[in-house]
Design goal:
alpha+beta, Alpha-Beta Plaits, 5-stranded antiparallel β-sheet, 5 strands, EACC1
Length: 115
Amino acid sequence: MTDSELELALVGQGVDEAALLNLLDEIDAVRGARAERLAGGPAPEGSKALGLETMALLVKAGVDVFPKLVGSLAEWLTRQPPGTKLRIKRGDDEFELEGSMPTAEILALLTASRT
């Protein structure tokens, strides 16, 4: 995984195919970011599995696009049912976002994960 790749997994009671597709659309709307579904492996704890696929995406974006991408992810989370979380993995670092976490705090986590 390079610095410009993030793995996003949906976690929570309200997580389903529609939520994943909605998140995919949200990411695709960010200029300079693209996402694709990840296949294989067990579904994250608390999520619903779709066959062999997990509720996860691989997001590729330049580091300069991260602020806009993170802002979109934070906004998307505020529109989801309570308890919906995004598990983000960047390299060997992993953390979860939930609710109305401020964009600056999310960016700080991403930056800290690379130092």
